[in-house]
């Protein structure tokens, strides 16, 4: 746990692009909010591994949003049901349902559809918010934090040694 | 140096993760399938489903499950159905399109209503109280083997003697008031004597001339008018007396009959309402008929509800976070679940009956054909001939189905029917023939069947007078024809059984009950008779009084009639003649 936190701090304090961190947050959110055993999550995992996004924040985001998903499940079901029952889309759904890709994607599952659409809608917000927090952390909070006595104490601790070791 | 956006080692990591997933799935596929099947079949069944072992083969894709047990949600200690082995050839091409198409399904060792070896199963969808099968039989324990107490009989039957007595009292009192009122207008003896005196004066005293004669005549006419009015009053009084006498006689008759009527009512109560006496056939054969019909209605009882649940997610309680899969199949698309051919080996009393099925699906509207099934087994150890065929469709309006069967020469040996404290009964030997038809329209069952038991020998022992009478009658039977009817909904079938045994035994049991009841009937009759006799005395006296009054009134009427015959002219002539002859 300490290692994970240290890695996160390292990422925040490093030269890693804020957008890379925001992308990790968004991808982790997709994995956390939507049902795990779905084909689109393989694509998400592939993207997280192949592109240089921060894996620590990706895993942390996955853990946090999995918890949130449990609370939002009923809402996802209702949203998915409303989308899947939309009359004007029935033709598209029928066409997709007749294909292997459509079947494998399980788009016809209310929770999958509801959580995926919800994730799509809030992903720009999550990305921008993450970017804003990282940039402001680096600009203001990082320096201010260093002045606190508690931070000075932490700097003398084993955790700080671990962090410094990681930083190289 | 700016690093590349692509992290190539990530590709390797992805490959390793996918590889691990494939290996784990490959290694544990059978276990994963077992858990998935137990979960999904359990949800469809509404109660725990256990599978001993699942095996697969890739080419051709075959799935085999051993030891499948589906708990009965209404009786979790028993399996609704259990199978020794299930083997399915799955179409890979259709599976890739998300459809489960099974070309051939073989199910062997099917048994219904077997006790679970692993103890009580979990129930996911508790059947409503109304859904628990309401079969024709009740328990022998419910048969009343002791008679109710006197007060209880009186309360249940609703004796009417008291009511009749009250009514008689009221009606007779009304009549009494009416004739007392009529009596007030009657002339008394004094008035009649007065009439006689006045007539005598008018007709017999001295005449003082012709003017006097005219005056007397006028007075006599007035007197006669008054007498006629009194006669009219007497007439009315007598009419009233006749009516009252009639009413009193009628009421006395009803009062006399009341205890007898009540006793008859009690006898009817024993003949008709003795709990448990109404449907002996159901009582005796209900449990066995239920077991037999579970085999006969296997298609409806097991398959139809499962197929119905698979197409109607409302019947299965949703699990939080499980979501719901909607179907967007086009009208001309193949069904998503389709077993083209199936063979089930059902075990009936250690004999195997093969049932062949075609087109098992929950989407008959897409397939355009019903699910059909046939079973035929001749010259087996159990019977000479058995033939069953039927079809079933799940439509938007519900389940539509029909089934017919013929069974000939089934051997029944040592078949226990009842083993209660009150009655032990079993069929020592019999030959059973049966044929019937069941129709299902919009989930409602409608059908009837005949069960004929020939060369019947029964063993029976009863522990009370009533059940002993039943046992004696049963032992005398050598043939029994039973009419069976099916009704109710498919999830809550009702079975009605009746035969001439009901009438025969019902009469016998009523007689037995009556023989036991005679003592109590005597007590009740004595009570009623004492009440009636107490009131009858006063009513009979009243009737005698009415009769006496009637003869008095008759006497008055006669006297008045005589008075009306008196004529002033004759007397006058006599007097005038006397004067004339005396003067000469």
The number of distinct β-strands of chain A equals 0
What Rg of chain B do the Cα atoms give? 47 Å
Oligomerization state? heterodimer
Report low-confidence residues of chain B grouped into runs of 5 or more: 129-146, 272-276
User: Which class do the helix and strand fractions of chain B yield?
Assistant: alpha+beta
Strand tally of chain B is: 13
Q: What is the mean pLDDT of chain B? A: 78
What spatial form of chain A do the alpha-carbon principal axes imply? elongated
| Main sheet record of chain B | 13 strands, mixed
Largest sheet of chain A: none
Instruction: Calculate the terminal CA-CA distance of chain A, rounded to whole Å.
Output: 19 Å
Strand content of chain A: under 5%
Strand content of chain B: 25-35%
- What is the C-alpha radius of gyration of chain A, as a whole number of Å? 20 Å
Can you describe what's shown?
The complex is a heterodimer of chains A (168) and B (584). In chain A, 83% of the residues lie in helices and 0% in strands. Chain A has helices at residues 2-13, 18-33, 39-50, 55-84, 90-97, 100-105, 110-147, 149-155, 158-167. In chain A, α2 runs antiparallel to α3 and α2 packs across α4. The longest helix of chain A has 38 residues, at 110-147. Chain A is elongated and about 65 Å long. The relative contact order of chain A is 0.16. With 584 residues, chain B is of the alpha+beta class. Chain B has a domain at 159-273 and 526-583. A 13-stranded mixed beta sheet of chain B has the order 1-2-3-4-5-6-7-8-9-10-11-12-13, with helices on both faces. In chain B, α4 runs antiparallel to α6 (210-272) and α6 packs antiparallel against α11 (500-564). The longest helix of chain B has 65 residues, at 500-564. The N and C termini of chain B lie far apart (193 Å). The chains are: A mainly alpha (168), B alpha+beta (584).
